[in-house]
């Protein structure tokens, strides 16, 4: 399946929740050593500390990593920290209408989620 | 007359469609070259007819295998202008540079000694020295670049004049910039100012593209990979000046079977024969035979002609790609064989991975990323580059296909 659909390119060009939060509980920076892509994420938790209330992020990279991070950032809002730790590739693919992603692009696609899970871990 | 279309017929893998209606255009030869049918056949023939361990049996197959292994070593050594005993088969260039670090560095370097390398090195010719410095207390000096394209020779000369320079390691042809470094000039600077220093030449990207003569270049160590020069993966070479081997300045770094003289319970002596001394364990005989066949293939084409063909492609790619809006080619402008093997570029709006994947959807295989030269990419401010690289079978039509595939990039990104 061709991943360069209009929706994905558009998502990367107008990303959601872009820009770091001044008021945040957690900040995390992650790089993809194989290609140099990078992302910084800021998270604001709910008062009980169990869910995510707000997300802000910045990054540089390919369409796949940026679009994936953008969609993820929206999905994170309101999600429980416990659930997020169990999210996998399959939880993000449907947003792009895809069943799978090639081995060569999986790292790009998963960079955002890995970064969030690492920061919460 | 060099005819790459005829040459291409020897590489069955290139004759395929990778997507419906999209024939393969393989422009990733700097990562690994394709293999001529004959190379694959001689390896299969060995396993189908002659397979046995070398130097260990007195039966017919063992004699055949030993003979084939010896002849292969002779052929490969000759191809790079070395004597048979000067060639140590390794798995690849990385294993060769590690061999220098363990077999020479650990025995000859100490606290305060200086290792010199450059900003354009592949990690195989950098990280190995970082680790050697950690083990020995030596210091690493990294020479910078001029115009993001060539080694700064003034800085190089200044650094090799420093006291205690013991090892100078640099690349012959850069895998990211394509730059052909002035080896003779650099070697003469080292010989003049750092008389004690040994010189390492990373020839992984030069042996496949231009005539390389170890003795003429007057370096102490030369490293190369078989798989980048039409040979199989899993075999490469470390060439060491004979006097370093004979004097024991360079020592074996792998111990065990095959390399011994006499073994007792508590200690052992090692083989007098230099080939045996540096061949611990059962060697990859089939790959050695395959690599020797690749050398014969290149010899038949003639390395002068191979180099001319390669440079023509570099010039043509430079010209054709220059017309694409938003594209900037990295490395020196082609002039008198000053760059070979590849053309890498950055795009002002499209990321290297996106470029590579869209080009692939048109059948064009290129590489994207930092090509194992992270410090270079960081220093030049490139997050990643996209690289089209060539070999003996590459044609101007391949480059035309690359340029044509950019139409799809423009369409997707509405450029």
Can you characterise this structure?
The complex is a heterodimer of chains A (121) and B (415). Chain A has a single domain (6-120), classed as Sufe protein. Chain: A (Alpha-Beta Complex). Chain A is built from five helices and three strands. Chain A has helices spanning 6-13, 63-76, 81-86, 89-92, 103-120; strands at 26-31, 38-45, 52-60. Chain A has a three-stranded antiparallel beta sheet with strand order 1-2-3. Chain B is of the alpha/beta class. Chain B folds into two domains: 4-30 and 302-412, Aspartate Aminotransferase, domain 1 (Alpha-Beta Complex), CATH 3.90.1150.10; 41-299, Aspartate Aminotransferase, domain 2. Chain B is 40% helix and 18% strand. In chain B, strands 4-12-11-10-9-5-6 form a seven-stranded mixed beta sheet, with helices on both faces. Chain B has a four-stranded antiparallel beta sheet with strand order 15-16-19-18, covered by helices on one side. In chain B, strands 1-2 form a two-stranded antiparallel ribbon. The model of chain B has no long low-confidence stretch (mean pLDDT 97). The A-B interface holds A 2-4, 9, 34-37, 60-64, 104-105, 108 and B 351-354, 357-358, 361, 368-370, 374, 377, 383-384, 412-413.
């Amino acid at each position: 399946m061709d991943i360069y659909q209009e929706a994905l390119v558009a998502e990367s060009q107008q990303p959601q929740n872009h820009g770091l939060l001044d008021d945040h509980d957690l900040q995390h920076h992650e790089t993809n050593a194989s290609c140099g892509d990078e992302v910084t994420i800021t998270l604001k938790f709910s008062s009980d500390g169990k869910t995510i209330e707000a997300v802000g992020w910045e990054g540089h990279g390919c369409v796949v990593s940026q679009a994936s991070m953008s969609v993820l950032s929206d999905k994170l809002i309101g999600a429980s920290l416990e659930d997020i730790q169990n999210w996998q590739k399959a939880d993000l693919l449907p947003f792009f209408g895809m069943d799978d992603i090639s081995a060569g692009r999986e790292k790009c696609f998963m960079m955002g989620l890995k970064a969030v899970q690492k920061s919460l871990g | 007359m060099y005819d790459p279309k005829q040459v291409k017929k020897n590489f069955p893998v290139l004759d395929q469609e990778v997507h419906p209606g999209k024939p393969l255009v393989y422009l990733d030869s700097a990562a690994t070259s394709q293999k001529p049918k004959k190379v694959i056949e001689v390896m299969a023939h060995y396993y189908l007819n002659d397979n046995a361990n070398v130097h260990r049996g007195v039966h017919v197959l063992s004699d055949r295998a030993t003979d084939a292994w010896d002849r292969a070593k002779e052929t490969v050594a000759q191809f790079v202008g070395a004597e048979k005993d000067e060639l140590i088969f390794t798995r690849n260039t990385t294993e060769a540079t590690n061999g220098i670090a363990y077999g020479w560095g650990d025995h000859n370097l100490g606290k305060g000694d200086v290792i010199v390398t450059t900003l354009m090195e592949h990690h195989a010719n950098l990280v190995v020295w970082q680790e050697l410095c950690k083990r020995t207390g030596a210091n690493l000096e990294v020479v910078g670049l001029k115009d993001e394209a060539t080694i700064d020779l003034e800085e190089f000369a200044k650094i090799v004049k420093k006291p205690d320079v013991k090892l100078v390691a640099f690349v012959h042809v850069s895998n990211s910039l394509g730059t052909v470094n002035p080896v003779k000039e650099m070697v003469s600077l080292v010989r003049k100012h750092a008389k004690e220093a040994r010189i390492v030449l990373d020839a992984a990207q030069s042996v496949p593209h231009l005539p390389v003569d170890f003795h003429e270049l007057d370096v102490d160590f030369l490293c190369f990979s078989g798989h980048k020069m039409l040979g199989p993966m899993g075999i490469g070479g470390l060439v060491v000046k004979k006097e370093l081997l004979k004097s024991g300045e360079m020592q074996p770094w792998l111990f065990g079977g095959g390399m011994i003289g006499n073994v007792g319970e508590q200690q052992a002596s090692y083989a007098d024969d230099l080939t045996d001394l540096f061949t611990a364990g059962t060697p990859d005989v089939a790959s050695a035979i395959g690599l020797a066949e690749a050398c014969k293939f290149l010899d038949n084409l003639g390395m002068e002609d191979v180099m001319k063909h390669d440079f023509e492609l570099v010039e043509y790619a430079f010209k054709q790609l220059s017309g694409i809006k938003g594209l900037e080619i990295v490395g020196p402008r082609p002039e008198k064989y000053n760059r070979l093997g590849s053309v890498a570029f950055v795009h002002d709006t499209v990321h290297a991975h996106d470029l590579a994947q869209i080009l692939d959807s048109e059948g064009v295989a290129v590489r994207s990323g930092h090509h194992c030269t992270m410090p270079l990419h960081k220093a030049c401010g490139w997050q990643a580059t996209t690289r089209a690289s060539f070999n003996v079978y590459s044609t101007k039509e391949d480059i035309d296909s690359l340029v044509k595939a950019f139409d799809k990039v423009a369409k997707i990104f509405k450029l």
